[in-house]
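step=predict obj=Short chain dehydrogenase n=292
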Amino acid sequence: MVKTILITGATDGIGKHLAKKLASEGHHVILHGRNPQKLELALQEVRTVSLRGRVSSYLADFSKLDDVYRFVEEIKREFQSIDVLFNNAGLYAGKERKASAENVELTFMLSVLVPYILTTKLGPLLEKASDGRVINTSSYMHHFAKVKDLDFGFETNYNPGLAYNNSKLYTIWMTRYLARDFFLRGSNITINSYHPGLISTNLGNYSSDEKTKKSLFGRLMKSFSKNLDEGIETGYYLTLSEEIIGLTGYYFDDKTVKTVSEKGYTLEKAQDLTNYCNDKIKLFKQKYVEFD
């Protein structure tokens, strides 16, 4: 069965490689990117291997909420349904804390807030699919998160490692919360998170900090990285496998449900996380009435 699959951050690494594999099997792949030149190159690459030539591309800078909402409106205008939303875009930020106009730290923005917005706003399109799926990219590094308080904006304490590890934990919290919410509303949408493995990709592309590439994180990415074929295995599995029909709220690694580090997780803390996201969205909409 041919599926329509939206992949964010699809101009590099896992996103592009997964898009090529899915397109080569005849699926309609929707590519997202923020760099127009790289997006055009990715579009041509994916189209070259596409079995049916059904490849679309959309430009949006996810560090800006107005771009996020314009992207949503474009997708809703041009597609009646989507089978899979694959939230792949992310970054490992630089030494200095950088934030959006709403003061959302950018690592959190890409890993948590944007997937939250896309999932909730594109939910009606996913509902129209017989097996609507959302896949959120987390990381094994969530095990090293340090959650002493719920400083989702990393305003009192910031370093790139803390922002990355905690944001990947919050990705899991958000996934579990939305899985519960969909279930209670009787939705057929499933939502899961996964660890793709250490893969040498351009994860720091949203950051202009060259030191990131020379950091311990950057060196680990190069030293222990999987090749891309290995790196997309779990994501591909979550996208298409019939084995996970009905499974929701889980964290996968190597195509297997794995235990997560709770780090004090409670439903109340997950609600605090979504409240933080909703507050930032509300702040944005006060300035941009067109997206209200």
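step=describe
The first helix runs from residue 13 to 24.
step=end
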